[in-house]
Amino acid sequence: MEARNSNRSASPATRSSRARAPALVAALALVAMVPPAFAAEKLLRMPEGDVVKLEAPRGAQQTLTGALGRPHPFATAEQRAAVAPLPWLDDAAASKPAKGNAKPAPELRGPAGDARGGAAPPFAEYLARGDFAEAWRDLERMDAGAQPKARDGMVSPQDGAHYGYVRYPGNLNTSQWLAAPWNKIGKLYFTTPSGGSSYCTANVASGNSVLITAAHCVYTRGQGFNSNFVFVPADRYGVAPYGKYGWQSATVLNNWINEGGRRWDVAVIRLAGEQSSGRPVTDYVGWLGRSWNQPYVQYTYSHGYASNISTQYTNICRGYTYASSNEGTDVLVQGCDMTYGSSGGGWLRNYTPHSHSGNHVNAVVSGPHIGDFGQSYVGPRFSSSNIVPLCNAAGC
Fold first, then answer.
1. Which positions carry the signal peptide feature in this UniProt record (predicted)?
2. Number of helices and strands (H, E) in the chain?
3. Closest CA to 199 of 86, 306, 312
4. Over the stretch 165-193, which tens digit does the pLDDT of each residue have?
5. Angstrom distance (rounded) from CA 128 to CA 310
6. How many C-beta atoms surround the C-beta of residue 335 within 10 A?
7. Are 318 and 337 in contact (CB under 8 A)?
8. Which of 103, 181, 304, 352 could form a disulfide with 358 if both were Cys (CB 3.0 to 4.6 A apart)?
9. Domains and CATH numbers, the chain
10. Window from 16-20, 69-73, 341-345, 349-353 with minimum mean pLDDT
11. Alpha helical stretches, state H, 71-185
């Protein structure tokens, strides 16, 4: 795949006739509005597998500048709170079922591994309170008297076991949006190639400010990369207590582009500094760990901003993951009733509340389990074939 520019204009030398003069003036005016450099794709041949990396346009990484001088679509809390989640498109992400009734082969292309998470500096909360004072005042007002409630009939502190899992609210309350590991999980906003605004869930999972999310949140198959990426850790009702982050690069597996399939539905985004302070996201929230080539059966806590429950805070499903012959190799299944918006949410093994250790991202939400929409979902089992080449390319 050749690197390509997302915008092109004809040379003025080809438009020299007087009849085309008005068109030339209009074209030059348009070019004057375009940023000096455009995002470009590159195919990188990694030892573990090919990836495609998109570099962000210069000048639009940290400042969240809108295209062609237009206002950025995710600049305010009101804009962010109103964004709808990305739907699950089965035809874009469906796995290739295994033949017969045999369980999928593990394909462990290397030893099991993990990378440790990390804490923000000791003064991180003080720093965030100072840098994002208005956001903290908004959240403190909620906590003081107008604490939002979980939607009646949908969520309770622990709503019981269904299909081998238990679901409960995530960062609804101060005790969680303020603490690890929950403050390292947030909303990823973006514009689709068709021009619509949407969001997914994403996770800070590297000391180099690299996000892990689902590939379908980064690259729309058959159309190309999404754009205008903005990440808000611990997003709650559109408020950004730890700031807003543009992006430097986005990377997906070439297999996702060419084949699709749940096992390839993972992507990474390297973040720029916070739009106003310039600090990396890890200065405020730290980062989660990562793991790969682990057994299919794990006890995990999966997270997401699920629209069927609430788009404004996360929920958590806890339960065992397992393999399914219908889903194919390197795909995990977990019971959970979260749907749209939970895409990209991390499945954490070694779950350790109020701690910067453990909490390894082992998969992300991809979409519904075949024939079981709204009761279980699937995600790519992190392995040497997917998360390793992505992280090597992005510099996790």
1. 1-39
2. 9, 21
3. 86
4. 899 999 988 888 899 999 999 999 999 99
5. 25
6. 23
7. no
8. 352
9. 40-89+117-146+157-394 (2.40.10.120)
10. 16-20
11. 77-81, 90-93, 124-131, 133-144, 174-177
